[in-house]
Every structure is written in structure tokens, then in C-alpha cells.
Amino acid sequence: xxxxxxxxxxxxxxxxxxxxxxxxxxxxxxxxxxxxxxxxxxxxxxxxxxxxxxxxxxxxxxxxxxxxxxxxxxxxxxxxxxxxxxxxxxxxxxxxxxxxxxxxxxxxxxxxxxxxxxxxxxxxxxxxxxxxxxxxxxxxxxxxxxxxxxxxxxxxxxxxxxxxxxxxxxxxxxxxxxxxxxxxxxxxxxxxxxxxxxxxxxxxxxxxxxxxxxxxxxxxxxxxxxxxxxxxxxxxxxxxxxxxxxxxxxxxxxxxxxxxxxxxxxxxxxxxxxxxxxxxxxxxxxxxxxxxxxxxxxxxxxxxxxxxxxxxxxxxxxxxxxxxxxxxxxxxxxxxxxxxxxxxxxxxxxxxxxxxxxxxxxxxxxxxxxxxxxxxxxxxxxxxxxxxxxxxxxxxxxxxxxxxxxxxxxxxxxxxxxxxxxxxxxxxxxxxxxxxxxxxxxxxxxxxxxxxxxxxxxxxxxxxxxxxxxxxxxxxxxxxxxxxxxxxxxxxxxxxxxxxxxxxxxxxxxxx
Amino acid sequence: xxxxxxxxxxxxxxxxxxxxxxxxxxxxxxxxxxxxxxxxxxxxxxxxxxxxxxxxxxxxxxxxxxxxxxxxxxxxxxxxxxxxxxxxxxxxxxxxxxxxxxxxxxxxxxxxxxxxxxxxxxxxxxxxxxxxxxxxxxxxxxxxxxxxxxxxxxxxxxxxxxxxxxxx
Lengths: 512, 168
Description:
Distance between the termini of chain A: 65 Å
CATH topology of the largest domain in chain A: Rossmann fold
Order of helices and strands of chain B: HHHHEHHEEEEH
Structural class of chain B: alpha+beta
Strand content of chain A: 15-25%
Strand order of the largest sheet of chain B: 2-3-1-4-5
CATH class of the largest domain in chain B: Alpha Beta
CATH topology of the largest domain in chain B: Glutaredoxin
CATH superfamily of the largest domain in chain B: Glutaredoxin
Oligomer: heterodimer
Number of domains of chain A: 4
Shape of chain A: globular
Helix content of chain B: 40-55%
Structural class of chain A: alpha/beta
Number of domains of chain B: 2
Shape of chain B: elongated
Number of strands of chain A: 16
Strand order of the largest sheet of chain A: 2-1-3-4-5
Radius of gyration of chain A: 24 Å
Radius of gyration of chain B: 18 Å
């Protein structure tokens, strides 16, 4: 019996993986070959998907990207024993793209059958939970504090402090809410871990529940991820069946139940208070802060709201220790970050590395430059609310503080590359347009400011004299100042960042 | 690009059936959101007559139900085409030419966003990020995402979807 790995994951699926499964099993049957197809997640090398791997005596040999047309040829070349073929990549883990990564959170992703409890346990899964049960609340929070983990959703708030706050609240009911409303363009790390190693999220949320004294958790998942929903629900059911979730977890007397809740296509629901409103079945309009969700969150109860990657990093921290995690990274940016390379990029995908490498290293060494082969002109880091960087800023280190110094933000770690065909005035206008489409409407600077922003940028581009253009630039600057300082949340407050970075670094694009 | 799934089949709107389908959600966390998703799965959209009905089930005013329904892009108020095609408009896809692809798709189908083709086969919608940003540009047809979409690939896909409709 030969094991063949074909990912059950959105990227691979979007490029025909499901059809490949059928084609390969049909062909194997026709040739009387004994094969077992295992559905792993993606290892994150999107440019190699669909990546088909075969288990051999010399490691897992990869072939990719595999198309339907390749299938008969692969069999003719004895790929099930690692035979030669134009698409043969060799031992996948020896490829520089993987070898040069530092995988802690994504250590299992793409390797194991995604929803299998046994395979998860075989690679260190649920060791963290067992340690957490032995340590108790204070011990868990101490490990989290030692790890230096800061919220990976974008705001980078220290996770241990949030958990401490909720743990210290006296309440009859507390909640753990996972923010899986990954709406930033250029980001897909949440989706990849939920599809490739969902049990790490299940385990992380359970540990969070033990730490703060919550017995109920929700994963608020965006509706654009239908496959993720199926995989998460399977993982939750498997964890329950194995006694890692539900009542009396591993005989400890502790309970934790978990449910997936579907969003409905609103970007603003990635903002934590808007998400809580939505989870309560209301319009996803943001709430005033304070009170913080940690004190008055879901249904007014103390609530931990953490991003998927923050929570999925918890098991490895509890397994290997907070200090081990903090050995990665630098300064106040400790641990690793799954960076996501997207847009116009040759070798796009997920790169987990300790903080500190430069944006250029990420784009050139891992990404191999642009997909079109043309020069990189602009790079947007941190989603639609992140700054556009020109070539001159590409040597900025990927580190929360270093990025802030350069006028940008790491956000959720999404990196979108544009080649020299990009028009930055158009991108700036889009930032305003996006804000106007997705604004929850609660505060005026965001709701109205974004519409005025589009109009002003149009007038700048259409200005017939430099005086006219300068006058409009002053209006735009003023508008952006107002949005930044008077908006209720990051949507209106940060939209000026991509806009003003485009104006600052690419001024020539605003002149017709 | 190949067709991977048949069309989702929608029933004709039926208020009694709709009520029956959501009754068990009355005490669920965020039940009205789950209910709206469920109605849309069954009927393809949420009819106006559902507003007072949902209000009764969830102990909300008609205005509150309308408020929730109208806030979210996903909830439709009229029956969509047999397939809903969403084309990503966000930055990573823009970097790979999604603006041009969008124009070509609109030309080919002869509709704009939020419109349904005369054949009733396709409803076209914008979407902001499908989380497949390393393989842009992307579209999603019902629940199936397609990456690295070219206009030629799209035309082949759309034709095969229309054809399967005729034979069905």
C-alpha cells in the first residue's frame, strides 16, 4: 500500500485537487495498484499546488504543480515509487523554500491528515493541553507571558495580559471567541491552519478556556471559507469523540464546548466588538470602547477575543514552554509570524519565520520576485489598512516596532506585491472605496469621509493645474487627519495609512 | 478550468416551510444570523415575508430583523440565478489584473454586478478577498473557489455550467 498525499485545502482545490483525487484513484485502480490517498492540508507553498506527495523509503517525494494531464504520465514514470518526472520536486522538506522556514505554529500543517486526532497526537498534539491541565490558570498565563506572544490578528496586544484580565473577572459565564473573520486582502494564514491543522486551534481555545475559566467557545468564521467550515466541524467532532473537548476533558472535571459560527460577508466583523455584535445576531456595528470585551464582551460577559494564529500558537507554547517560543524573534517582537506572500509574486504562499528578516528577503529569497517578471514597484503589508512601501523601504525588518517606525504596520502578516504596471492613485482611491463599501456606518468620519475621499482623489487626478492639485491635496490631508483621529475604530482610523503612503511615496501617479 | 459541482437547487419560497426550518434556532446564540443563512440555503434568498415571521420566532421587531438582513452582503432579497459567481476585487487580485478580468467577465455575461443574466444562469457579485491571494485572480462559484482565472478559462467554465443546466 502506497500513501499518496493530496491536499484538501482551498488553494489546492481552486486549482483542481478534487479532480486529481478522482483521476489518481481511477488510474491506480485501472492499473491494479494498491494506493491510499491521504487528505492533508497545504504545506503553504501555493505556487506548487496541487502538490502531490508520495511516501517512499527516502521521505515524502513531491510532484507539483500537478495537472490532470500529468496523471497518466506520472503513473507511466512510476511516481508511486518516487520515479523521475518533469514535475518531480524530490524530498519536499529539503526544498530551500521549506528548509529556510522556522515552523512552530505550522509545524504539522500539510504533513498530517488534517482532522486525525491520532496523527495530531503523533506529532506533539495535545501535549500542551495536558501540561495546561497540570499547571492550572496561573501557570498557563505565566507560560503565555514568558512567550511574549502578541495578538497576531493585527493589533499585537500581549495575549497574556488579555487572558489575565479575563481570568481576574468574577463572572458566572465567560467566553473564548476566536476571530476567524480573516478579511484582509493578501492574508490566508488563518484559513491554512484551520484547514491543515484545525486541532491546534481547538487545543489552543481549550487551553485559553482553562486559563480564564471559560467553558464555551465560538469560532467566528467568514462565509468566504466554506471548505474551512466543513473541516473545522469534522475536527471538533473528532476532538469531542477523543475526549479532548466537551464534558470532563481527559478526566479533569473541566468542560469546554466549541462551535463554529458563520459570518455573512462583512469585513467590519473582523473588528472585535463588531464581531461580538454579529455573534449576538445583530448588525455588525462596532461598540464604543471601553468597556473592553475582556470585561464586558459577548452578552456583556468577560470574553477573550483572539485571532486564529494567536490561539493556534498556544499549544506549542504550552508544549515546549514560553521561553522556548521567545527564543525566536527580537526585541518586543518575539516568536514566529506566518507571513503570507500574495499578489504579483512568483512563489507565493505561507512563510513562517522568526521576526527580523527583511521584507526584501521575504519577497526575493522566498517569493522569487514578481509573477510577471517585471520589477517590484509597491508592496502593501498588513492588509487593506496597511501602508504601501516603495522599493526604498523594502529593507525594513519584519518586526512590529521597525514597521511602525517606517510608517507601516505588520497587521496580520499579509504581503501583497505589485509590479511596475500599478497606478498608485487608483490604489489610493480603492482604499477609500473599500472603506465606503465596508464601513459599518456608525461614525461619520468613516462613513462619509471615505466617500469624500474618493471624490477628492478623483479631483486630484483630474486637476488641470498644479495649484488646483495642491489645493485638493490639502483637503485630502485634512480629511485623512479627521478620519484618523475621529473614527471609532481601525477601519476609518487606518484607511488614511495606505492613502497617504501612496501620496508620499508615489506622488507622480497623482499627476495626470 | 473544469466544472466541479452542479448547481445548488433552491425551492420556491414558502413561508410555512421557512418558519418550520428556523423554529429550533429560537434560543441559539446569534440564532437570527443562522436562520438567515439557513433560509438562503433552502430558498436562495430571504423573502420580505420572512421579516415579521423571524421577528416572532426571535422576539425581535420587524425593523431589527430587517436591520440585520440588510447589513450583511451575503443575504439576498430576491432569487438569484442558478449559479452565483463572485469575482474578487481586493488588492492581491488587483495586482494580477482582476480589474481587466472583471470587465471581460461583465462583457461576456452581459451583466454588471448584482445582476442576473437573461438566461437565469448566473448572478454576478463582487467579493473582497477569498483568501487565495498567492494564486490570483480568484473567483468563487457558489461554494467552489477557482484560482489563477483567465478570461478563456472563465468562458469555458461558464459554458460548461450553462450546458449542464440544459441537460439537467
